[in-house]
Amino acid sequence: MLTQERHNLILQVLQERKAVTVTELTKELDASESTIRRDLITLHEMGKVNKVHGGATVLEDITSFEADVETKSSLNIDEKNEIGRYAASLIKDDDFVYIDAGTTTLKLVDYITNKKAVYVTNGFAHAKKLVQKGCRAYVIGGELKLATEALVGAEGIHNLRKYNFTKGFLGTNGISINQGMTTPEIEEGLMKKEAVTRSYMTYILADHSKFGKVSSVTFASLDKVCIITDYAPDDKYKEVAIVKEVCKQ
């Protein structure tokens, strides 16, 4: 197989899996370990892959696109259920909880059983479900963003500043070592940033697909949060943030 052919296949595999080991590539490309290692070094120097110990990961995927709630609700459902189930178990009787709008945090609401805690949210669907469960819930005021069904804007930020939460549960569009937690929308990013500031402990609920992605607006650095995920695709994230994997591969 020609060198360029191997390079193209390696890039194709990385695009599909986000991370791959040297051992996996030697088997799939029927090449020696030394050849694959040289290929990865070359691709890394060309700026096409991120070389790590024992393999490679895809370069961070930068995007400003925000899918609507219906689309995101259909993605990684089982993973979001497990993340939501674990996150709900962290809520105690005396907690004052902030819940961010989003599809993964909505799964958290599905599993909440604690009716003694007090909840504040900027998500309409979240507030409705909480009240239906018999929970005490408050809705942050602001402008309604139809695509994500979130309340955002100056009014929402002003209202957040009145509160001091024991726990905050937030979603994210991207998790990056260098750029931190990111979201495509400026106003949602400002809301999330304020929520992190107002929370004694901040939990980011995100499945594995969010790792290595970067959106337009950073709202928190990795060292300021605890990430609850199904699994982290690379151990490098655990060196910077507290990571709880609920579906360890």
From TrEMBL:
Q: Keyword check for Magnesium, yes or no.
A: no
Show the InterPro entries listed in the entry. Answer: Carb_Metab_HTH_regulators, DeoR-like_C, DeoR_HTH, NagB/RpiA_transferase-like, Tscrpt_reg_HTH_DeoR_CS, WH-like_DNA-bd_sf, WH_DNA-bd_sf
What PROSITE patterns does the annotation carry?
A: HTH_DEOR_1, HTH_DEOR_2
Q: Does the keyword Chloroplast apply?
A: no
Which keywords accompany this UniProt record?
Answer: DNA-binding, Transcription, Transcription regulation
A Pfam family of the record is: DeoRC
Q: List the molecular function annotations (GO) for this entry.
A: DNA binding; DNA-binding transcription factor activity
**Lineage: superkingdom:** Bacteria
Query: Where does the signal peptide begin and end?
Result: none
Report the residue ranges that make up the HTH deoR-type domain in this protein. 3-58
Protein name in the entry: Transcriptional regulator, DeoR family
Q: Which organism is it from?
A: Anaerosporobacter mobilis DSM 15930
